[in-house]
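Most newcomers find our protein records easier to grasp once they have seen one. A learned vocabulary of local backbone shapes supplies the integers on the structure line. An example says more than a description, so a record of this kind follows:
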Amino acid sequence: MIKHKEQRVAVFIDVQNLYYSARHLFSTHVDFGRVVKDGVADRKLVRAIAYVVRTEGEDEKPFLEALQSRGLETKERELQIFYGGNKKADWDVGITIDCVRICDLVDVVILVSGDGDFVPLVEYLKQRGRQVEVMAFRKTTSTKLFEIADIFTDLAEPQFLITQRGKNKSRKK
């Protein structure tokens, strides 16, 4: 697949998916600003949305402000806690609806998630003639999602990871 500067791009970030993958795999965080910059790659950014789940505290406020300072629109949803303590926190349907709504206005959709629930969405977008790029951690990405993406970027590369202090984390491969 070709990336050229005239392509119109929309980026959709499943924050919870990446947050837990980065924490589990590397005990660190994702540099979402770098993800968008590298994903867009000097093409025309139409929209970049980060989908976030709020918890009961105010812990997310600095994180949300950091996302917004990097030019990301944020959409927030409350963490659902069910009787018995089960919790649900996903944006799959919201991300899917937003992708479908914008797909006629862009040439490229960048899905920043490794969740296999997005396979039907990617198939739909490709049938509509859109280039679909997936950015996620390969170790935690659905094999089917990896296979159907036009371009896959593994976020395990050091430039996409940050330490608690906000500096890029370098590590040996």
Observations:
- The radius of gyration is 16 Å.
- The CA atoms of residues 11 and 48 lie 4 Å apart.
